[in-house]
Structures are given as C-alpha cells and as structure tokens.
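Hi everyone,

Forwarding the result from last night's run.
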Amino acid sequence: MSFEFSAQNSKLFNGLTLVAHRPTIMKFGGTSVEDATAFERVARVVSSHQNSRPVVIVSAMSRVTDTLLNAVQIAAEGASEEAAHTLEANWTRHLAVAENLLSADNKDAAAAAIDGARREIPALLASVATHAMPLRVLQDVVVAYGERLSAMVLAAVLRECGLPAQYVDARRCIITDARHGSAAPLFEDTTTRTRREIEPLLQSSKIPVLGGFIAATADGATTTLGRGGSDYSAAIIGTALGAREIQIWTDVTGVLTADPRVVPEACTVARLSYDEAAELAYFGAKVLHPKTIQPAVEQNIPVRICNSRAPDEFGTLVDAVNEATPRTVKSIAHKTGVTILRINSARMLGAYGFLRALFEVFERHRTVVDVVTTSEVSVSLSLEDTSALPSILHELREIGTVEVEPNRAIVCVIGEGIRGTPGIAGEVFNTIRDINVSLISLGASSINLTFVVAEERAQEVVRRLHHTFFEREEDQRTRNTEHER
C-alpha cells in the first residue's frame, strides 16, 4: 500500500515537528536551590530533561530575598553599614555551594560573581541611606542580586555536571514599565528580546539559565515583578518562546487538596483546569503565583507543578481541560489577613450608578477587592491589602455608613461543576454549621464556593471540610475492605 504525502499531511508533519522542538520551561523555586544538596538535585532534574530543550528559570536561594529587602529597610533608616553586615551569611551560603560542587574554573567564575555582589551592594545601600535615588528604584537593583547570583551559580553547577548551560541576564529578556516593585511586562518588546537572546542558544543545544522575578525597563533600569514573580517570569518566557510546557519545580508534589501545614493528610490533585488553578492561586494556594496562569492560558501552554525532591512523581497538570471528578470538589484554599467592609446606604435603593461610584473609590486607591455580595441597601466586600484603608474609609463614608471587620479569612472550595451539583453547598455549610459565616459568594463562578469566617476558625474549617470531601470517603472504603475480610 503506497502512502501519499499530501499537503495536508505535510502541514501536520511540520506542526508535529514544531511541537517537538518547542522548549520546556523549568522554573525552580528558592527551596529547590537552598543549599549545595538542593543544587545537585536540580542538576539531576535538568539532566533528565536535556532532550526536551530546557530553559531554566531560578529563584533566589531561600530566604535571600527577605534578607536583601531587610537590608534595604535598615539602610533607609540610615544604617547602611549595619545593613551590609546583615548580608554576610548570604555570601557564605553561595560560596559554600561553589566550594562543594565546583572545580577550579567554574568555582573561580562563581566566586568572582559573588565577590562582585559583595562589593557592589554596600555602595547601593549607602545610596539608599542618603536617598540619592528613589527607594523603590534602589530596592529593585539590590533585590535583583538574589536571582542573578542564583542563576549564575546554577549555570556553573550544570556545566560542572557536563551540561551545556549558559547564564542569561533576564533583564535583557523581560521588558517592563517603570512601576518599580511590581512592574508590568511589555509583551511585544519582551517577546522580541527573549527570542533574540534565547533562540540562538537553543539552536546550538545550549541550556539558558535565567533568574526569575527580575526584569528591566526599555532603557535598562532594573525592575522586579513583585513577590513570587519567578513563576510569572517562567510564564512570560514560556509565552514568548511558545513553550510546549511550563514546569514549576517546588518542594511539594503539585497542588494539594489543602494546605499541608493545616491538613497533613492533604494529597496531590492530578489535574486542574486553568480556571481552577487560577482560583486556587488567588485564594491562597502557595504553589502557584496568581499571575502565572494568564500568559499560559493565552498560548494554551500546559503548566505542570513538580517536586524537585521527588522528581519521579507526576505532580499536577494544569491545562485547558475542564474535567469534573466524581466528588466534584478538588481542593480547599484559604487566605487569612482579610478585612471585611460593609457599606450601607439608602441611596442604593432603586438607584443606578451607585456600585460604579463605590468601586471607583477602590480604583483610585489601587486596591483589589476579593469577594463581593450585595443586598437592597448594602454591599459587603473583602480586602487583603489595607494599606490605603484610612483614605478609602474617608471616601466611602461620603457614600454611606461603613462597618469594618478585621481579622477574617476567606475559604474557597474549588471544583469543576460546583455551582451545578446539588447538595455541595448544603454539605459545606452542614459541616461547619456551628461556625459563623459572615459572607458567602456562590454562583459568580461555576467552579467555586467562597465564604468568610473569623480568622481564628479558618484552619478548623479547612480541616473539617477536607475530612468531609476527601477523608470520609477513604474511611468508608477502608471500613468496607475490613468488613469484606
């Protein structure tokens, strides 16, 4: 039987070829590079993926970003020498990795980079103390050293293991606006720059290694993408390169059914839709940064969350498939440190434009609102960021009376089909029937049921719900098995 290689077949073949040659983005978090042992694990993971054209994004070593931010704060109070002294342990940790894992040439290169940071940062901290430049600008420059050093050292470790790794300064790839501390990427410029920097390396079978979280303006000023921004960096680079998969390597095996610090029995969720993962990230799941999903959604790029300490485990796959499970609920997220505002006004009754005026207050103060419920004459909403609360309250009191309830927590039950599944809401609230719920949102999304409780009851609520939706069924199966025996 002959095979006719038609134009249609040719297109399909070329498409498959392109998919096979699309890179895999591998992002490693701070705990994945916390010490020499962790760097070794990362090298083994990258080596096992060498044939998938990896592009490596790495966070600063664990706790380094916090110490750099703390040093900037100390310097801002006028004590720049003290601030520089607080960073000595950082340099020791980086040098220990180089000493333990690198031979002469690679060790010398890594040590030179570390010594360079050790010399340069005190001068920057002195500039902070004298207010020579805006604090946010200098803070971005100082904090960026964490990711830059981590990426340089990791590239050297990979080369030591025989991998053709090359450090790439992420500031030459990700271009942002000038909003220091939480910059927004300029995607057109970023795509152009990223392809120009990365694609030649991939074509020559090299492994690019970039620091996450850091970027630059079009004129070269260092910026950062906000805390947790290394995940965002991975998504941005992956989108620019048309990656076949974005892998987030952390210290847990994927997205879990609840926070394991609250529920030690929590288990891995095998698969989530983009929408489910975004909701979980927004409402407190720590594995994914809330901004990570959107660039991947736009390019339909799967995101996989993996455990660098257990690389053979499957983890969680996040993609476009909206897949319901037999028990509907997939995970329970929670977020503490929430404040509830209740705005009451008779002007709401039969009036149009009231909600617009209300939310314009939050827009003016660049404050995000999480959960909202309304009645005939009142609106209740939750805030996580209360930095502008005094000014917000001043404006809201011109609209109506305002009650403030601090120390609240949001609990979010996630799963495809929750809105359309009879009995889910009843089971949730029957499980916590003796705990006061101050705000409920159900129906705005088909995949979540969200409510607010007192912060001190949040962990108890999560544990109870987890037992109801995940453990009780397992207990019943165990009892049935024992009965059959």
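Residues 1-17, 476-485 have pLDDT under 50 and may be disordered.

Cheers,
N.
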